[in-house]
Amino acid sequence: MIIFSAAVSADVSPPLAEDSAACMVSYPFRRNYLSNYPLVFFRFVCNLALMTVRRKIVECNGVFFITFTCAHWLPLFTITGAYDAVYKWFDFLKKNGHHIVSYVIMPSHVHAVIAFSTSKASINTLVANGKRFIAYELVKRLRLNGSDELLKQMASWVNKNDQRHNKFHEVFEPSFDRKECYSMKFLIQKVNYIHLNPCKSRLTKMPEDYPHSSARYYFTGVQGLYPVITYMELQDIDLGM
Predict the structure, then answer these.
(1) N or C: more exposed end of the chain, with fewer CB within 10 A?
(2) Is residue 13 a part of any domain in this protein?
(3) How many independent structural domains does the chain possess?
C-alpha cells in the first residue's frame, strides 16, 4: 500500500506569503490551536521576524522540522557508523511521550519531523541533550577508529569560551535549525524533503531503499530500521496531554 507519492515533492521552504496562508489552515496536531486567532497570528508574526535568527523555542508542544549538522559538514555518521546513536535518542523521546513522524540520517546531518508533547523539559533542552549524547558517541567511536588527526582538527574548532566549559571537540554546528509545522501542507512538504534528500545526494535511486530513513514506511507501508508514525496517524494524538 502506498501511503504517499513522491510526486508531491518540494525542495525548499514555502515563500512567506504561502506560509501566511498556511497559518490559516486548521492545525490538526494541537487541540483548539486556532481557537484564539489573535494569539496564533502574533506567534506567526514573531516567527517571521525571527526566522533568520536561531532562537529558543517557546512553545511547550508542537510538530517541528528539526535539523542539526556536523561541524564543517564532516560526514561523521559515515565515518563512525553511529546511526544507532540517533535511534537511541529517538527511543528516549518516544519513552517520554514524543513521536517520530519522519527522519533521515545523512552522512553529515540529521533531518527529523518530531511531534513534541507537553513535558517538563523544554523542546530546546530535549534537542540539545540529544545532540550532546550523539556527539559523545561520535567522539567515542572516532577514538576507537584511531581517527586522531580528525579529533585534533575538531578540537581546534572549539572556541575559548566553550573550552572553559569543558568542551573538547566541535562535533556539531552551533544550535540547530527548526521550523514549526503549522499546517498539513507544510508538514507534507517537509516529509517529502526529508525522504528525497538521499536521492538528491545520489546516495540511492529510490527513497525507500535508503536504510536510515522513514521513507520505506511511507512508500510501502512496511516499517524500516526505525519505526515511526505517519502524519495521518498523528492527527489522532493530542500533544497537549
Answers:
(1) N
(2) no
(3) 1
Asked if the model's pLDDT at residue 107 lies above 60, the reply is yes
For residue 222, tell me if it sits in a domain. Answer: yes
Within-domain flag for 118: yes
Task: Supply the range of the domain harboring residue 184.
Answer: 25-234
pLDDT at 181: 95
> Residue 76 and residue 83: Cα distance in Å, rounded?
10
Region 164-193 average pLDDT: 93
DSSP characters over 110-174: EEEEEEEPP-SS-HHHHHHHHHHHHHHHHHHHHHHTT-HHHHHHHHHTS-HHHHHTT-----B-S
Specify the pTM.
0.77
Count the alpha carbons within 13 Å of 183 in the hemisphere toward its beta carbon: 16
- Which DSSP letter does residue 23 get? T
Residue 64 pairs in a beta bridge with 114, 180
pLDDT-based confidence at residue 151 (cuts at 50, 70, 90): very high
- Measured between alpha carbons, how far is 178 from 170 in angstroms, rounded to an integer? 20
Asked if residue 114 lies in contact with residue 229, where contact means CB atoms within 8 angstroms, the answer is no
Report how far residue 72's alpha carbon sits from residue 70's, in angstroms, rounded to the nearest whole number: 6
Please indicate, yes or no, if residue 62 is contained in any of the structural domains. yes
pLDDT given at position 56: 74
> In terms of C-beta density within 10 A (0-12 exposed, 13-18 middle, 19 or more buried), how is residue 59 classed?
middle
Q: What percent of the chain has pLDDT over 70?
A: 77
Q: Coil, strand or helix: which one is 178?
A: strand
Is 179 within 8 Å of 123 (Cβ atoms)? no
Q: What is the CATH number of the domain that holds 173?
A: 3.30.70.1290
